[in-house]
Amino acid sequence: MNWNALVLVLLILTATFLILLVLVQRGRGGGLAGALGGMGGQSAFGAKAGDTFTKITMWTAFLWIVLCIVAFRVISSSAEQEVTPPGMGAAPASGDATTTPERPAGDTGIAPEPPAQQPPAQPPAE
Q1: Which residues contact 50 (CB under 8 A, 6 or more apart)?
Q2: Residues 25, 53: contact at Cβ < 8 Å?
Q3: Could you tell me the residue ranges of all domains in the chain?
């Protein structure tokens, strides 16, 4: 298993766990239990569960942020190391590196002038 896949799987698992952890917590509105018709005033995990869930949520969020940074670095470093297919590499440099590419025949590099505007036609005088 390569590093890209491993880091992305860990990132997805951590994000899913964080989402579920936040949904289980009891907030001002009663949390997910209150939204689904359960007992919103009591925690299903005991009286001290709020402090424990808060600590677990903070550490999980910290881990998720670290995994985001690691994923960015792993993916960007693997993108730099990609090998170009044979025959698709850059052409060997010949001559001066500051030369400009040749223009097609008849191209002077100057934009053509717009056509002259004609005054509006006057209606015939009666």
Answers
A1: 25, 26, 43
A2: yes
A3: 3-80
**94-103 mean pLDDT:** 60
Residue 87 pLDDT level (bands cut at 50, 70, 90): low
Residue type, 63: L
65 pLDDT higher than 90: yes
Q: For residue 37, is it left (φ>0), alpha (ψ between -120 and 50) or beta?
A: left
Using an 8 Å Cβ cutoff, are 41 and 84 in contact?
no
Give the distance, in angstroms, between the CA of residue 64 and the centroid of all CA atoms in the same chain: 15
Rounded mean pLDDT of 5-31?
84
Per-residue buried b or exposed e for 52-88, using 16+ beta carbons within 10 Å of the residue's own CB: ebeeebeebeeebeebeeebeebeeeeeeeeeeeeee
Name, in order, each residue with C-beta under 8 angstroms of 24's C-beta and a sequence gap of 6 or more: 31, 32, 53
Q: Is the entire prediction scored with pTM above 0.70? A: no
